[in-house]
Amino acid sequence: MIELATVFLEAAVRGATPLAFAAIGETVTERAGVINIGLEGMIIAGAFGAAAGALVIGPIGGYGAAVGAGSVMAALFAVFTVRWRTDQIITGTAVTVGALGLTAMLYRTMFGAGGVALSVPTTPPVALPLLSQIPLLGRPFFVQPPVTYVAYLAVALAWWFLFRTRRGLALRAAGEAPVAVLAAGHSPARLRTLAILIGGAMGGLGGASIVLAQVGTFAEGMSAGRGFIALAIVALGRWHPIGAAGAALLFGGAIALQHLAQAAAVRLPYQAFLALPYLLTLFALAGGAGRRHAPAALGRPLPTLE
Amino acid sequence: MISRDRPLARRVAAVGLRFAAPLAAAALVLSLLLALTGFDVVAALAALWRGAAGSPDAVLSATLVRATPLLLAGLGVAIAFRAGVFNIGAEGQLLAGATAATVMALSTVGSWGSAGAVLGLLAGALAGAGWAWTPAWLKRRFGVLEVISTIMLNFVALHGVSYLVRGPLQEPTRVYPQSPTLPEIARLPVLNEASRLHAGFVLAVALAIVGALTLRHSAAGFRLRAVGANAAAAASAGRIDVATVQTRAFLASGALAGLAGGVEVLGVTFALYENLSPGYGYTAIAVALLAGLRPSGVILSSVLLGGLGAGASAMQRDAGVPAGAAAVTEAVLVLTLLAGHALVRNDATRTWRGAVARWRARERGTLR
Questions:
Q1: Is any Cβ of chain B less than 8 angstroms from the Cβ of A75?
Q2: Closest chain B residue to A91 measured between Cα atoms?
Q3: What ipTM does the predicted assembly reach?
Q4: Whole-angstrom Cα distance, residue A55 to residue A48?
């Protein structure tokens, strides 16, 4: 039983890693008042960048390329939504559709229509000394691919940045009362752009962690809605990095249930388990999330004269 | 509306410009992309043209057939967006509609001929509205952002269809993941024997016209536009029940997307399977935006994007260009539209100076 719990938790942490990256980045973005529906596109761009980069340069290059690819998509989104004040939801949808199409097209042109699958080495788990010896929790949390530890670090860094730095304070204010930020001598436009770029880079890392720590290859549409789930995780985590990490773990658990169900030979169609994270999102949004904790200016373009 | 007073020629020119600029930009980006990925641009674009408009058959059997579900779903998206409801779930609602229509056509109803087809379409519309009901209720009851909930339900619908075509709805030999082929009597009639264009296209155009008239001339249409334009003003000045209007628009939008699924199954695919829709529900967003969210404009924009889809298939078949090219072109189209709006509005540079002025005025007490 303990063995089963360990295996389940291990799979939950593994499944949660890409979600945590994307959700923590999106927490920063939304705290600045921007809702990024293009996150899904940034994850798939990161996944493709990771596969291509790892093939040419190696794993480190893969992560670098993923961050780059996510940031490029984020920059595009920022130019539209911040500079041109376009609708965030429509722009984000277009970015996602475009990135899914572009990566599919590039993948087919570079690696052929199917058969010749692209394969990159995945980074094996590394046991952290001492921490991995903790009973029950040691193995699931501290015998993981290195990128998972980066995710832990990202939680702490995001918390420190948002709540312990002046720029973080200004950034959060840009999501609550942009005009006041301006009066205080900061540029809300610049802060929002920064927040979007952080979100895009983290989304890219999330995509990279799917490819380089889990699957070892690229597939069209392999982001599989993780960007949208991450949006729900942010709400469930009440726009706080630590909350987002906890919510990501919950969704990792929902994904891991598939493996558990297979092991326990549950007589339910496998599609029910595939659909579970998406259904859970609906319940999570209806139950805990609400709009009370949302930044006041979330989703609104910066104000104008009229 | 001001636009109604303008001379016809200028209105035609304005519409032309509206469509032409994004299309030109999309064509440019597509050409660049093709060149960068090493395709013969001229050959690929020639294939695109052949597939979309090169012959009467390309227009009737490819472009207009593809335009039909886009028209219906795009009409739904336009109505939702006009009411301030961001229904991104047309894809899931379409699959729900396709499933319901399939079930109807495979039951005894399917043998009733045209009455059965009508019932099948009605079932599709009902199922689409039903699929939209959950996010509509979540929005109304808990304030859940419909953007996320509708997208989540798209994935649930996809996995649901995946289960059905491998389980209860699988064809009798149990080899292929698809439903049995629908009996011929249950299908929609074709408009002309030589082509694949079916009665669904006429129905879609008729509904677009009805939608345009309803939106412009009925009280319900006025309420919907008022809510979308300014919900707070509609509630306080017009005593309009915003939540009810938005819920109704949401359900109508779902019904139209569900109808699109029903029409596709009864008119084109004649069976239910997973990849029934090549993302019609997402393309429908581009259709609605390209039409400026006007039901009458959706007719033209759905034909344009239907042509893009048909052309992209030909491009894939004849020039080996991957299908992703169509999605990229769509995205560029939408982004160009958005950028165009922003630049025409021409306040992008004034924004911050204006905000400062307003803030100072408020501090001094000279504003409000």
A1: no
A2: B335
A3: 0.88
A4: 11
- Kindly report, residue by residue over A111-157, the tens digit of the pLDDT: 776 545 678 888 888 888 888 888 878 888 888 899 999 999 999 99
| Rounded distance between C-alpha atoms, residue A100 and residue A83, angstroms | 24
- A209-249: pLDDT as tens digits: 999 998 888 988 899 889 999 998 998 888 999 999 999 99
Helical spans, DSSP H, in A165-291:
166-176, 178-183, 188-210, 226-236, 241-264, 270-284
- The answer to whether residue A145 neighbours chain B at the CB level (below 8 Å) is no
Cβ of A177 under 8 Å from any chain B Cβ?
no
Q: Across the A/B interface, how many CB contacts are shorter than 8 Å?
A: 188
**Cβ distance B325 to B319 under 8 Å?**
no
CA gap B146, B87 in Å, rounded: 6
| Rounded CA separation A244/B275 (Å) | 33
Its pTM stands at: 0.89
Asked if A198 and A251 count as a contact pair (C-beta separation under 8 A), the reply is no
CA distances from residue B58 to A219, B43, B54, B72, B196 in whole angstroms, order as listed: 32, 17, 6, 21, 10
For the beta carbon of residue B354, count every other beta carbon within 10 angstroms. 15
Distance CA B11, CA A298 (A): 37
